[in-house]
Automatic annotation (TrEMBL):
This is Helix-turn-helix domain-containing protein. It comes from the Bacteria. The keyword Amino-acid biosynthesis does not apply. InterPro entries: HTH_HxlR (IPR002577). Keywords: DNA-binding, Transcription, Transcription regulation. Residues 22-120 form the HTH hxlR-type domain.
Length: 133
């Protein structure tokens, strides 16, 4: 997407996630996908090694966590630090941008968790109304 050249509070953003050609969609998918948000949230708590991160993000496979970390690292949200030890030690931590994104995600997670009783009531009401006899 091209920059508009405008500046100020009313200027259009140079990227539009609602446009199918916009590169920001890929990053949004990495952040909001099944494992991306959980990985970012877990790393907000601090630097973690791969296996500790995998234990924290319960249910993620080794392959999916590896793919998720690669995507988040490529997007500049996660930093991978490989220590030249034997055996090799690799730590993952959030970048400054990753921390900003994770803060917002954790706010959303907190909202969802705090309102789950309402969600469960809504699901039950919906399921009752849409039962097939």
């Amino acid at each position: 997407m091209e920059e508009t050249g405008e500046s100020g509070p009313d200027a259009a953003l140079p990227f539009d996630v609602f446009s199918k050609q916009c590169v920001s969609r890929g990053t949004l998918e990495h952040i909001t996908g099944r494992w991306g948000g959980l990985t970012l949230g877990a790393l907000y708590e601090g630097s973690l090694r791969f296996n500790a991160l995998r234990r924290r993000v319960d249910g993620v496979s080794e392959k999916m966590l590896s793919q998720t970390l690669h995507a988040l690292e490529r997007d500049g949200l996660v930093h991978r630090e490989a220590q030249p030890t034997n055996p090799p030690r690799v730590d993952y931590e959030l970048t400054a941008l990753g921390r900003q994104v994770a803060e917002r995600l954790l706010g959303l997670i907190g909202l969802v968790e705090s309102r789950m009783s309402e969600v469960l009531v809504a699901r039950e009401r919906y399921d009752r109304a849409h039962e097939t006899h």
